[in-house]
Amino acid sequence: MGQIVFILWRESVEALLVVGILYAWLSRTPEAQGGKRWLWAGVVLGLLLAGLLALGIYAAEGLLAEHQDLFQAVMVFVAAALIVQMVLWMRSHGRTLKRDLESGLSRQAQQRNWWGVLVLSALAIAREGSEAVVFLYGTLAAAPAQELPMMGLAALAGIVLALATFGLLQLGGKVLNWRSFFRVTEIMLLFLAAALVVTGAEKLQAMDWLPALRDGLWDTSAVLSDMSTVGGVVAALTGYRAQPSLMTVLVFVGYWVLVWALMRWRSAVAASRLPSAAHGMAGKL
């Protein structure tokens, strides 16, 4: 349940961030009032696209009924990859997101061409919605039917929390600020992706696609059992296992090594762009 609340909370906040920036700019620019209709049309289109993806996933599951377990394992890994990609993207573009969006809107207003607003809002909603759909698929597919109503409430709670968080963030940093919010949730998202990777690895081990190498490498059940209420939440949000196999540990460690390498690579790419940007500015001066 905690996974559902968290992922929908974070995904909804990101979608609200983009839509909020677009709406705020359109509202304070007299010549851009006509763009609001295109903004809301884009939001509706984005929701429809995310809904179509959900239908497509369940249709694919029906077509691959004989390989349902493998399909679910693959979707878990896809969800983890999307989460990591989202964190890397926000680290690269978060600082300039508002400026870039407003710059594009200025060009659209000058040209009286609001198709860009529709496409941008649709893509923002569809992107976050599709990530939520892919993530929730694995969770819902493995859940007993009697838990589905509670999961629906968890999803609703995540959206309500997102609206409340967005409202607090709009207070201008008096209660929360965007930088702190994204830094804290980035860490939580990376741990959540680790939990998904561990779940996927365990599914492959259960299918004999991966060897366990050694079962029960250690046992910390006496300290925190992943079958307890608290331990279950920790396991769902971080990938913790009280009695992991050697393969599970290797996958967990490998995941963090890969994340570290990707972040180093992104930092190196960003650093390499600074000298060229500075040179370009010097040339203009």
From TrEMBL:
PANTHER family from the UniProt entry: IRON TRANSPORTER FTH1, PLASMA MEMBRANE IRON PERMEASE
Organism per entry: Ottowia oryzae
Single GO MF descriptor: ferrous iron transmembrane transporter activity
Gene Ontology cellular-component annotations: high-affinity iron permease complex
The family this protein is said to belong to: Belongs to the oxidase-dependent Fe transporter (OFeT) (TC 9.A.10.1) family.
Pfam families from the UniProt entry: FTR1
Keyword Metal-binding tagged: no
InterPro entries linked to this entry: FTR1/Fip1/EfeU
Keywords: Membrane, Transmembrane, Transmembrane helix
Cellular compartments annotated: Membrane
Protein name: FTR1 family iron permease
Taxonomic superkingdom: Bacteria
